[in-house]
Amino acid sequence: MTLRLLLPFLAIIFSQTTTFALSSVNINSNTNPSRTTMSEIASVLDTDALAVEANSFASANGIQVERKKTEESEDNLFLGAPMSLLPNAYPEQEFKKACDVAPAFNELVERVSQDAEFLQQTLGGGVSTMDPFTAKILKLYHQVYVDDSTANAPAKSADRLGILRSDYMLHSDDDSYQIKQVELNTIASSFAGLSCKIANMHRYLMITTDDEKNDAVFPPATGVPVNPALDELPLAMKVAYDRYVERFTKSKNDNDNPPIVLFVVQDGETNTVDQRLLEFALWETHKIPVVRRSLTRLNSELSVDETTGALKLLKQEVAVVYFRAGYAPTDYGDGEDGIEWNARLTLEASRATKCPCLGYHLAGTKKVQQELARPGVLERFFPEKDETNKVAAMRTCFAGLYSCGDDATPEDLEAIRDVLDGGEAKYVLKPQREGGGYNFYGEELAQKLRSNIERTGDSLELSEDLAEFILMQRLFPPEQNAVLMRGGKVEGTGDSISELGSFGTLVVGSDGKVVHNRYAGFLLRTKFSGVDEGGVASGFATLSSPYLC
Asked: CA 116: distance to chain centroid?
């Protein structure tokens, strides 16, 4: 059976009573009286054979993750990355919206990062009191960029590079599904490399899996789009690198020791292939060398020229620092003021371009996301009349976001009461933490609030322990059937939901001038329904591709 015959099935993602307008195609369950299940698809498709084809493509094209080393084996062994065997239907209009709004969110991160007063007001109260990690990042931000000291001159002369990813779920309060922002990632935004390979794999399977006996007609849709992330992310790094060379050195070819791009990575990292794809693209396309180091190792190998602020890794000058680590307390194993924090400060205090700088890192916190969704706050950062369209485009993406701290408004308290009165299924409680696995859902969420709130009638007294959390409207994307693979094997078949990530890249000069601002590709993660968390690296989701309808 041709895989193209499956595409109408991919688009039937709602229950029997729901109509879904997919761009130029209206798929109404009344014309498809029974919902097509993956078991029915499997009856006409040899899933095992298709999995063999997918595994072959994945192995030949590096769709892999590194297996964790064990005491028995220190060898580098690789497994097939978690992936969906088939692409997932996605409304083209909402996909395009996520792409189009990326440059506006890029600008927002830049402007927030330069507003020290806003960051201090938002993060300097209960959040910093209850979350030492965020407090430390905020302290370093003030030390390096805000405090008036000549020692800060090199850092203030540095350009800024953003490789960002805004994550969305489709959600509907009526019959119309729209993207709603889950979070805006500003540090270590991953899977740009592997997502390109997954999209290529799905297009390949669509073309080559064919049965001459079945020449089916499939919905007139644009199919799996080309993912430009492996072009766009290295391009942004090149722009930042070339600006550094132009500003601070004569030429990257002046000698046999050109400046490098430094990838800051975690010890024991398993998502190395995704990172290496960016590294190899930088070299193959732009002839820019990359060196990988952990924060622990960097502490003994870094130095900053006291006169120029040049960052040196042993004898090599560093033009760009790209963080794929440093976003979680576990990356700073030596503790408060330990060697990893010292390395982070050394990197930040130099003239090298950071991706991200401390300001961008702080702009991606959950508390900042919640504060930006308040009425009138976006206008603080986009005050000009010709920027109203940007504000409107971003605001339509916001889900309901509510404070759990001492700045809680009546609207925030009303959402908290809703949880206490049995509405916990409509919300998720999020801390200021990246990496997946930290959120509270359902009864666990309700218990977390009940144990930290004193309620007298309608009056609520919130414990300070809640200050580091935000309460977010829970999003319910449409379900569709999927075959998910993990470690090269079919993990299972069943109803799934997906989360779309839209990459954006940004280069800003030390003078605040934006020199590069682009949409930069996509990521689609798919997981079985009923799984709360959504990270691929943390073992919850798989990599997929959108099939635009």
From this structure: 24
- Say whether both 171 and 286 belong to one domain: yes
Instruction: Compute the half-sphere exposure of residue 240: CA atoms within 13 Å on the CB side of its CA.
Output: 33
What is the phi/psi pair of residue 497, to 5°? -130, 160
Catalytic residue, from 94, 340, 424, 434: name it.
434
Whether 192 maps to a domain, the answer reads yes
DSSP for 34-69 reads: SPPPHHHHHHHS-HHHHHHHHHHHHHHHT-EEEPPP
435 catalytic per annotation: yes
Q: Write out the binding residues.
A: 165, 183, 185, 187-190, 269-271, 275, 324-327, 366, 430-439, 441, 499, 525, 527, 533, 536-537
pTM over 0.85, yes/no: yes
One domain for residues 379 and 273: yes
Catalytic residue among 430, 448, 474, 518: 430
The reply to whether 68 belongs to the active site is no
Would residue 525 show up in a list of annotated catalytic residues for this protein? yes
Domain C-terminal end among 433, 453, 472: 472
Residues making up the annotated binding site for Mg(2+) are 183, 185, 434
C-alpha 435/C-alpha 327 separation (Å) is: 8
Question: Do 433 and 405 lie in a common domain?
Answer: yes
Q: Which of 55, 106, 128, 190 is catalytic?
A: 190
Q: Are strands 546-548 and 88-90 parallel, antiparallel or unpaired?
A: parallel
The count of structural domains within the chain is 2
Q: Which of 55, 106, 185, 502 is catalytic?
A: 185
* Residue 7 in domain: no
Residuewise pLDDT in 10s, the chain (549 residues): 444 444 444 544 333 333 333 333 333 323 232 334 333 444 456 788 899 999 999 999 999 999 876 656 566 689 999 999 999 999 999 999 999 999 999 999 999 999 999 999 999 999 999 999 999 999 999 999 999 887 789 999 999 999 999 999 999 977 789 999 999 999 999 999 999 999 999 998 887 765 443 444 333 334 899 999 999 999 999 999 999 999 999 765 555 689 999 999 999 999 999 999 999 999 999 999 999 999 999 999 999 999 999 999 999 999 999 999 999 999 999 998 999 999 999 999 999 999 999 999 999 999 999 999 999 999 999 999 999 999 999 999 999 999 999 999 999 999 999 999 999 999 999 998 776 668 999 999 999 999 999 999 889 999 999 999 999 999 999 999 999 999 999 999 899 999 999 999 999 999 999 999 999 999 999 999 977 654 555 457 999 999 998
